[in-house]
Design brief:
This protein is α/β, with parallel strands linked by helices. The protein is built from 8 helices and 11 strands.
């Protein structure tokens, strides 16, 4: 499930975007100011950012510049009422990946978000694997050998996160921050239970688990 951050200080517009994207199956969080958006981006991981140009405390351009300056690579869709070529050029030069002028049709918003997600996937590859377990990051289908494994959304999210970051250990706090974000159901116990379920589904009976646990370090998937 792709996670999207919407940075928009107009409550009605923010709720409309949240509702539109949530109906498409996205996990959507909102920030009502530029500073809140920057804080969330520094703490949590997102697949796409929908960023308004005109924010009360700081401009979306400034948010974007700071995010890129500190190494942020998440695709950003800029929303604005500005429509001149100069304005679009300024947004793209600041690091925006796409540009949508208000007012916009919800279907166009969804189409542009999906396009950014596809572009991001194409940059890192659509298939992740370890041993005989294969994850298609586009369809979220998981195969063990030739058999499809049915995983819950959070189990897929954990598997994908660990596969994208092989040979790196992540604590339960890291997992909450990167996979759950600011969701209220995230916590150490939730991570442990999710990993336990995931292991039962992807590990071969009697074999060493694909997901390594090390006390004081956390969880890791190593290279084959």
């Amino acid at each position: 499930m792709s996670k999207i951050l919407v940075v928009e200080d107009e409550a009605e517009i923010a709720q409309t975007i949240l509702h539109t994207l949530s109906l498409q199956g996205f996990n959507v969080e909102t920030a009502n100011s530029g500073s809140d958006g920057l804080h969330r981006l520094s703490v949590y991981s997102y697949d796409v950012v929908v960023l308004d140009w005109m924010l009360g405390d700081m401009s979306g351009i400034e948010v974007l510049k700071q995010f890129r300056f500190h190494g942020g690579v998440t695709p950003v869709l800029m929303l604005t009422g500005r429509s001149t070529v100069d304005d679009k050029e300024a947004g793209l030069n600041a690091g925006a990946d796409d540009y949508l002028t208000k007012p916009f049709h919800p279907r166009e918003l969804v189409a542009r978000v999906r396009a950014l997600l596809r572009r991001a996937v194409s940059c890192v590859g659509e298939t992740l694997r370890v041993q005989d377990v294969v994850l298609d990051t586009r369809t979220k289908k998981v195969l063990k050998g030739s058999e499809e494994i049915r995983l819950l959304p959070k189990e897929i999210a954990i598997l994908e996160f660990l596969l994208r970051n092989k040979n790196t250990f992540f604590s339960t706090e890291d997992m909450v921050r990167h996979v759950w974000g600011s969701e209220s159901d995230g916590g150490d116990d939730a991570v442990r239970q999710c990993v336990r379920r995931l292991r039962r589904k992807i590990d071969a009976p009697g074999a060493v688990s694909i997901i390594t646990t090390r006390i004081g370090l956390g969880y890791c998937i190593a290279e084959d």
